[in-house]
Design goal:
The chain contains 12 helices and 13 strands. By secondary structure, the protein is of the alpha/beta class.
Length: 385
Amino acid sequence: MRVLGLLSGTSHDGIDVTVVDFVEKDGDLQGTVLHEDSVPYAPALRARLVAALPPAPTTLAEVCELDTLIGQAFAEVAAAASDAVGGVDAVCTHGQTVFHWVADGHALGTLQIGQPAWIAERVGAPVVSDVRIRDITAGGHGAPLVSFLDELLLRGRAGVSAAVNLGGIANMTVVGPDGLSAYDIGPANALVDAVVVAEELNERGYDADAAIARTGTVDAALLTALLADPYYALAAPKSTGKEHFHLDYVRGHVDRVRPDIAAEDLVRTLTELTVRTVAGDVRAAGIRFLAVSGGGCHNPLIMQGLRDALPDIEVVLADELGAPVDSKEAILFALIGWCTMHGVAGVTPGGTGAREPRILGTITPGAGPLRMPDPVERVRTLTLR
């Protein structure tokens, strides 16, 4: 079955897409990546999206319009990818997260927009969507869903191994003799991106190659204040997002600690925040092997900072596990789509805190009648190529 995976992450800079051809036999799943791409949002659409994200106020009218416009953008990206491989059997879309509701350490709700009916209409294949909420109803955090893929890729390694994804938010999956644990560590690129955009430090909206951070220095007092955030001390499972870590969050700390800080020093300090929080959690978990993915792995200061802070740990890119660093999460959603269509739970309880495994998502039929393939009992192994 050919499944197309789509998402826009917490960096909300564009749409990642991949097509994976899955073949299953006796619970062993092989996936061949046929197509991968990343398409930036149109500048006007991205600007509207950013303006509507918390803590900014918005209206239901704006949410409705963005749901349609993002759905149409996803549909065009999906159609181009489907055409590139000669058609697909199903689509799984994550959409765009606009709010993740966490209160008293528990996830109570989550909202991803990008109306899937536009994708089904444009591509003609059934679309799996709204994949996080079923995990939340089972007591999970709805995140990090990538723990399902990570566990399959890391399974069988000796000792304790882990995968970290450095998107807008950094999340980590730890696999060892005692089982699986996964959670959101804290901000990876989210705060740096917010400052780069707000201060108009470049036209890209992120610190490409750490060019800005390289010209600054770490402000020790500000870093200490940022590290004191109570979120970091919470026990896993836990999840977070831009409803907590956003531009006004940064400005509040700056106003209290270092109101005159140069923009370059602020970017360098926020970059170091990612290194310190990720490295600290990796050390605490006793990890010996770490696979890194996401946009943050292209930041040389972050990667060198992790290697310097973790000298006794093998730090590699996720490509070594068969999952390209820039398309790993799109592969995840293709995998979830395949699992949902085959009646397989797409979440591991230790990964999100859910009480039991759950089949994820809602299915929107394509151009014809919805015909489900024969169910599969479970997936034991996954090999990507």
